């Protein structure tokens, strides 16, 4: 069930990934907007083949860290029902990022996946352009150079929602960000825009922006382009569906519930 672990990571980071050279967004694609507010809650249902394998949630609140007004996001993923008998997942991800600039200040990853556990904290110091990772399980500390823009798994999701508008996107072009979330260091993620598509959901028909997150093919995914992501084409820009073809089987995740969206959730009326 390692694919489930990967999909939870995609959900919690807003589901963009890959291996491409970092590109700072130009001014024409950085028109800050208000796509979320404190109190927003998103729930996703994840299916592995015919199994209702797990749920993942994201909850956004207001907080203060080091005297800076921040958003605090808690992301949780857990297996449920029959799937939990074979592979129990209990993951928590947290991110604190600035309300004004969207830069991450602290990231927490505390996961338990079968026999695999990890407990790390990353503190970002943008003034000194350094990030310090504390591995609480190993009792070790690492330092990374963050010269330039960098996001964690969760803050990157909210950064993109506020800084990219549908009218700025061009079919075939990619959005790219640098990520730091583990002791593997900083690496780039890439998300290609494929155009608009209407999906049938439990809430009704939703017009979406479709993206292709680039992933590493081989042990888990069939191909580099095995993952597809649909995001609502409204001012909220929340994930509606994720589908992935795996080396064995497939995974599908759908938005299952939401609360306290900043903007009206757009449904196409027949």
Give the strand order, joined by hyphens, for the main sheet: 8-7-6-5-4-3-2-1-14-13-12-11-10-9
Oligomer: single chain
| Proportion in helices | under 10%
Unreliable stretches? 12-31, 216-225
Alpha-beta classification:
mainly beta
Radius of gyration: 18 Å
Query: Largest sheet, if any?
Result: 14 strands, antiparallel
Look at the structure and give the mean pLDDT.
82
Overall geometry:
globular
Q: Spell the H/E element sequence.
A: HEEEHEEEEEHEEEEEE
Tally of contiguous helical segments:
3
Distance between the termini: 39 Å
Give the strand tally.
14
Q: Report strand %.
A: over 45%
Description of the molecule:
There is one protein chain. The protein is mainly beta and 270 residues long. The chain is built from 3 helices and 14 strands. It has a 14-stranded antiparallel sheet with strand order 8-7-6-5-4-3-2-1-14-13-12-11-10-9. The relative contact order is 0.20.
Could you give a short description of this structure?
The chain has 270 residues and is mainly beta. The protein has helices spanning 2-12, 81-86, 155-163; strands at residues 41-48, 51-65, 68-79, 89-98, 104-113, 116-125, 130-135, 140-145, 174-179, 187-201, 204-213, 227-232, 239-245, 250-259.
